[in-house]
Amino acid sequence: MTLSAFLTVVVIHLLAAMSPGPSFVVCIRTAATHGFRTAVGLSIGFGLGAVLWASAALAGLALLFELIPSLFTALKIIGGAFLLWIAYQMWRHAPEPLDMKAQSLNTLSFARAIRFGFLTFAANPKPAVFFGAVFVGLVPAGTSLPVLVALIAAIFANETLWYIVVARLFSMSHPRALYLRAKAWIDRAFGTLLALFGLKIAMG
Asked: If DSSP codes are grouped into helix, strand and coil, which group holds residue 183?
């Protein structure tokens, strides 16, 4: 695999990671409600989710989806249902006031935030198809294991660092104050967006 092809994959993935989706919505809300440290854990979970689907694509999962469409459909329905559940929880708790004391910001532990981030990202199997399409054209057969490991590491770094930047921005005092002033409306808006993403994943 040439250096040019390697960098092309990294740039394409970074642009895809930066496009708004379910992870973006969840990251903003987590940063505003639980603080930067917890949102960093969430970002690491997103990175691990990207590693899952990128590794699966390299192992041929995208091809398996083509051979067994029902498997892809089942995963989409399960993932969409998970996002709909998160959306329901946002709507359900939207009217509840948020206690911004330090102890209340840490109700979601770092480890749980990683797990939640991973499950949120894993709920969408479409990245496996994305990675499969990119890898087919740019990662030649016979690419050495160290290069593949470096590629997966770069994908993890892309996903994690981008969402850490998002988390830092929305955990700052001004964005958080804006969130507090309109929490009910923002949570309902985020819940609606997540529900739409869930339906799109399940039915798309």
From this structure: helix
- Say if CB 23 and CB 163 are below 8 A apart: yes
What is the torsion angle, in degrees rounded to the nearest 10, for the CA atoms of residue 129, residue 133, residue 138 and residue 144?
40
Output the six-digit token pair for 178: 């804006």
Dist. CA 183–CA 46, nearest whole Å: 24
Local confidence pLDDT in tens for the 204 residues of the chain = 788 889 999 999 998 898 878 888 899 989 988 889 999 999 999 999 999 999 988 888 767 777 888 888 888 888 888 888 888 887 887 777 665 554 444 567 899 999 999 999 998 888 888 888 888 778 887 889 999 999 999 999 999 999 999 999 988 888 777 777 787 887 888 788 878 888 887 887
